[in-house]
Design a protein that fits this description.
The protein contains five helices and six strands; from the N terminus they run αααββαββαββ. The chain is α+β, with helices and mostly antiparallel strands.
Length: 177
Amino acid sequence: MATSNDRTLPFDDSNPHIKKYLKQLSNPILQRLFLFAKLPSAFFMGIKVQSVTPSEAKVTVPYSWRSQNPFKSTYFAAQAAAAEMSTGVLAMLALQGRGKVSMLITKMEATYGKKAISKATFTCLEGQKVMDAVKKAIETGEGQEVKMLTIGTQIDKNGQEVEVSRFFFTWSFKAKK
């Protein structure tokens, strides 16, 4: 249980709560158990957290019968789930050891470019942005919103990385008393 002193812990991997969370995310068995218990649709689609640091997250969604649409590409909802998870793991990371802080998506925007016909990787590089928003929510006691970008890419048949979709998720954070 977090104490009020925990709210002042650093927002990096020197924070023991963040260190523990990163270790759990890097364990494939624990990751799959978490998805099965808390996000069964992501588990079913085969979504995986590839890597997480306090500054960035990479999440993949495979191109398989469990994630594709009738048009032989990755279903938009499967892409949205992986994209949301790439921002969400950073948000959860920011909350580690902070006591009770609520988090909620208040808006989502998406654009789809190329047809996703292979494994797609969603990369969010905005860990610092979410850490700053959580810190401000705790310090001020006021709700904070942060708009986070994640970009989905795949490797095409020429070995080139191409963008398949781009998502913006607006997260809201409010420290509970």
